[in-house]
Amino acid sequence: MPTRRRALLILLGLAFLALGSLGVALAVGSVALGPGELAALLVGGEGPAADIVWQLRLPRALAGFACGGLLALAGALMQSLLRNPLADPYVLGVSGGAGVGALVAMLLGLAAGLVDALAFAGALAAMLAVFGIAHGDGSWTQTRLLLTGVIVAAGCGAFISLLLALAPEASLRGMLFWLMGDLSPASEWRMPLVVLGSCLLLCLPLARELNLLARGLLEAQALGVAVGRLRFLVYFLAALATATAVTTAGAIGFVGLLVPHGVRLLAGGDQRLLLPASVLAGGALLVAADTLARTVVAPQQLPVGVLTALIGVPVFLLVLARQPR
Amino acid sequence: MSAPLLEARALCVAVAGRPLVQGLDLLVRAGECLAILGRNGAGKSTLLATLAGLRAPRSGDVLLGGESAARLPPRAAALRRAWLGQQRGDPFATTVLETALAGRHPHLGRWDWESEADAQLARAALAEVGLAGLESRGVDTLSGGERQRLAIATLLTQAAPLYLLDEPLSHLDLCHQVAILALFKAMARSRGAGVVMVLHDPGLAYRYCQHALLLYGDGEADSGPVADMLTTQRLTRLYRQPLRCVDLGGGRVFVPEEAGSVSGYPDACS
Lengths: 325, 270
What we know:
The structure holds two protein chains of two kinds. By secondary structure, chain A is an all-alpha fold. Chain A has 14 helices and no strands. In chain A, helix 1 (4-27) packs parallel to helix 13, helix 3 crosses helix 12 and helix 12 packs parallel to helix 14 (304-322). Chain B is an alpha/beta fold.
């Protein structure tokens, strides 16, 4: 039986995990720091090591945490909105739209800030297009929404391939890294953290209603859920979370699909626990993956999106195999 | 006298422009059981969902406890009626107890978690449908009949005064069919619940309900006491299938006559 106490205990455990991943992210790199040194620097140290931690590692780690949390939250929301375990944040074409926007900006040689702006605009455009088309006749069924999203995503994918084919050699690498998902010390972290906090705060009071939505639209309505309003809100929150994450760090794969399922397998599917737990676990996973991405073959850096998949897939398969059926 | 649990006034229900029910007036008071009978596709489920306020009627009004269902917020409606649909399906794994607890949703505040008292109610409801001891089982491990009874337990947990049941007996064996019907009859008799259920067996309807509503599928409907409604003549017309009625002291059984030497699927069914 789900209780608040059990949920809080699990969340506390995950919060420690997330803090641990942030600690490791701050300590590891070309200048390695012990726990004592790191603590001293955080309390108020000076010098080049402090600059590295405060200027380079902390913004990057916070951006990573925010993006991981946003993607996992969006994944969990999309899965219950579409009642489909295979749904992920990108299933409705939001990342495709962002990709088109970002690549067009890169192709035009625009500044980094404008790349982000165009990516966000592309994500919003895709989100509104999918909603507009699927909602067209008011039926807005899950299948219709899913199919519209898949088609818009496929269209964006084709357009992205076209842009890659047209792109000059020099900008190709940057484009590919963007598409695979990549963090850098210059990643914006304030906005994603604010969006993450707001989305989570707006979702939590709806969590029990989301539990009922999984049973079916009419079933949820019969139990007292204002289904239309709930779905509308969840759609826009999930899309906003995805758009923010993709704008910040590119289309990082697997976090949004694997983290909610991992949490479900370990702690159950109650959305009141699933949503905040996914945020913490997703954030921790992305911070850990990014730490690996910048250290395993240092000084070269790997795109973090590749790492999330490389870590996430075996961990997920392990959890799945361990699960008694 | 308090308002009836359910009232339909000049209700018209249509699907894709095809009228299924026209000008229906209906009244269900506390303690009453009403059976809805009709052929496949006659509009029984659509009517039931409309009566539950889950679907807008083409015209006319549905009143739940004296208030228009169209104006009731979903939560308030959920405290006045519980609805059992035909579809079962939960794409994500949950346990039996968690599923039964879902019925407490309209009783809880936005930030509330289910209390021990709620769990007691859910356990009692599970025991009432013969699922005691299965609380921690995964729903995906249940049989079809067990899932059906779990859905009924969720309805009991909801504790609304009016039950709208769409084929409550589907997937149930004979023993459970009788037990579930007896359960709702007792709910009506001793706890003053109102029960409306879609049934396919006129004999069971005769035994467990006081009133019957026959839906002919073309907008026409008859309703009245079961003794008047469930007759060979009316049912033969309703199902387009010759029937023979066998009277047993206090009960009636309807036996279908054998189809003649017709080849292929009988036209009457379509």
